[in-house]
Each structure stands twice: as C-alpha cells, then as structure tokens.
Amino acid sequence: YIYDQSQRLHSPWFRFYLPYNPGTVLKKVTCPVLALNGEKDVQVPPKENLHAIERAFKTGGNRHYTVKELPNLNHLLQTAETGSISEYGMIEETMSQTALQIIGDWILEQTGTR
C-alpha cells in the first residue's frame, strides 16, 4: 500500500497537479460558468475553492458566472452524511436531485429558454 501511494505521488500527473494554479487559467475564461461544490466535499474544500474561483473570475473580468456551495452534498454531488470517500459506495443516489435541478435551471437560463 505504501509503495503504491508513493508511486502515485511521483506520477507525472501528480507532479503537474501539485504546483498547478487553476486561477491563472480561470482568469482567462470569458464564457458563462457554473461552479458547484458540495458542502461535505472532503476532496475539494468548498469554501476555499469557490472563493478562489470567484476571485479569479472577478479579476479576469468575467461577470457571467454562478458559484454555489450545495448543502449536504459530497464531491460527487450526492446527498451524504459525512462526505468521506469511503461513503461513496454506500450511497445509492447517483446525483442529488437538487444539484440536477440547479444545473438544468442554469443551462436553461444561459440558453434563453427559461
């Protein structure tokens, strides 16, 4: 197990990922964006990441974005008790109806069909 984990840490993807700052790219995005995070996401902490995403859009001048933290949802936007990765396999829900509704409504707004 330890060997496998250490190998993963030395993979090209992980070496790229660690110093990567998505804000640099997000500042250049000009199209409408919907950024969602589950409140119980333990892989991508919602408050810090959503704040950074919003800051990047503002800095880059993009005014067409929506940022939302969704209560009681995990990284996969499933209703969760703890948000723990070990919980994923025990949750029958593929994706929260609330998340699906928010995504659908946002798409309709962007396409002018709402």
Quick description:
This is Peptidase S9 prolyl oligopeptidase catalytic domain-containing protein. GO terms for molecular function: carboxylic ester hydrolase activity. The chain has helices at residues 2-9, 12-17, 22-26, 46-60, 97-111; strands spanning 33-38, 65-70.
Q: Poorly predicted ranges (pLDDT <50, ≥5 residues)?
A: none
Radius of gyration: 17 Å
What distance lies between the first and last C-alpha atoms, to the nearest angstrom? 51 Å
Along the chain, the helix and strand elements come as HHHEHEH
| Number of alpha- plus pi-helical segments | 5
- Provide the helix percentage: 40-55%
User: Could you tell me the mean pLDDT?
Assistant: 94
Would you tell me the structural class of the helices and strands? mainly alpha
GO molecular function: carboxylic ester hydrolase activity
Protein name: Peptidase S9 prolyl oligopeptidase catalytic domain-containing protein
Main attributes of the structure:
114 residues; mainly alpha
Description:
This protein has 114 residues and is mainly alpha-helical. It has one domain (2-111). It contains 5 helices and 2 strands; from the N terminus they run H-H-H-E-H-E-H. The chain has a two-stranded parallel sheet with strand order 1-2. Helix 4 links the parallel strand 1 (33-38) and strand 2 (65-70). The longest helix has 15 residues, at 46-60. It is flat. The mean pLDDT is 94. InterPro entries: AB_hydrolase_Est10 (IPR053145), AB_hydrolase_fold (IPR029058). GO terms for molecular function: carboxylic ester hydrolase activity. This is Peptidase S9 prolyl oligopeptidase catalytic domain-containing protein.
